[in-house]
Amino acid sequence: MDSLLSRPETAEPLSLYGREAVKEELRRAIAAGSTEPETLIGAARESLSRRFAPTVVRVVNGTGVLLHTNLGRSPLAEGARDAIARVAAGYSTVEYEPATGHRGKRQDHVRGAARALFGAEEALVVNNNASAVYLALTALARGRAVLVSRGELVAIGGSFKIPEILEASGAFLREVGTTNRTTADDYRRALSADTALLLTVHPSNYEIRGYAISPEPSEIAAVAREAGIPWVHDQGTGCVVSLDEFGVSGERTVTNCLADGADLVTFSGDKLFGGPQAGFAVGRASLLSKLAEHPVARVVRPDKLALAGIAATLTAWKTGRWRDFPLYRAAAAPIEALEARAERIRSSMAGSAFAIEIVPSFAVFGGGTSPEKKFASRALAVAREGLSADELTLRLRSGTPPVIARVEAGRALLDLRTILPEEDVVVERALKEV
After folding, report:
1. H-type helices in 172-240, by residue range?
2. What is the pLDDT of residues 231-246, one digit of tens each?
3. Which domain covers residue 37, as residue numbers?
4. What's the CATH code of the domain at 343?
5. What angle do CA 253, 257, 262 make, to 5 degrees?
6. Confidence category of residue 153, pLDDT binned at 50, 70, 90
7. Residue 208: is it exposed, middle or buried by C-beta count within 10 angstroms (0-12/13-18/19+)?
8. What is the pTM of this model?
9. What are phi and psi of 94, to 5 degrees?
10. Is pLDDT above 90 for 248?
11. Are 253 and 309 part of one and the same domain?
């Protein structure tokens, strides 16, 4: 072992991984039966590189889903990235007030700007939207009933289910109406002395069409006012501006929801808001104070990096720079620009073993935003003789960095709507490596 550790070719692994880790892998290589120093050191180096390789890495998103939950949802704007890097590099004022030298409040970094942006009396930021919903139910409805339409008992992602969140919060679910038809009178009939609040949930990953009806926001607000209970709306997407210009209509903004009469609105920070993972609760100050004072608020509070990114994203919204966000640049890219980029990539692969077509495609915002509303895009349909579409996409995502394509009608598609322009060269390199 001493002989192996003293060899020149072991110096680099020792500097990268440390003496004990290198010894562990050398022992494994020796146990496998080899005695050649070069073979042993090579095996140890390869094993160490796999063992300590980062697992959270940047990928190229060629799926056509702009807010792909599995791929980290919204890419951060430059200002947010810079703010996070500055705070990460040293100590920070996360809970410190330099002017007084006293302890500060972390919410003060974002609450004022959030109030101004959304036109709310008060605002609170937590670590994600599920936490915001859970905190609201725990602080406002524990031990009491919550009215929810049967058509809004959603399941989102891995394990976020409204009935289970209600149960975990200590509140009781009282189902209202039917899956496809719920009226304001259905809510009224379900009211009782133990009703704590009325909860509505944005159907973020499905739509009910056909013989369906749901009350207007003004009707829901009227029911809540008559009963003297708050209306809590899980808006979910964090929509700040109309999406009509991107070809997606009907998505209510957070400000719309408050204007409709919702007393408390919750939503994600890493969807249409375009920031880091976070959850917002905005609305009536009397309700937000109950949330802020509840012990669970500390359990779900955001860290310094999220606060820095959120604050910078709020500033960008208030100063009109949201069109520079990667999300909205991608959504607004003209078809002609996508076609030109696709043609450049295809031309770079001339003479290769690939057959590449530029084909019409449809992109979606995704991430629980208008699931049935697609807008036009362009994609590269990539094929190679001897490789199925599944095999080809496997090879693309096995590269460094992984390039994530989608398979549609037996073809591997790389959608230019979600591939950032600066990533085109990465796509070319990945195809050439395949």
Report:
1. 184-190, 217-227
2. 999 999 999 999 999 8
3. 2-51
4. 3.90.1150.180
5. 160
6. confident
7. middle
8. 0.92
9. -55, -40
10. no
11. yes
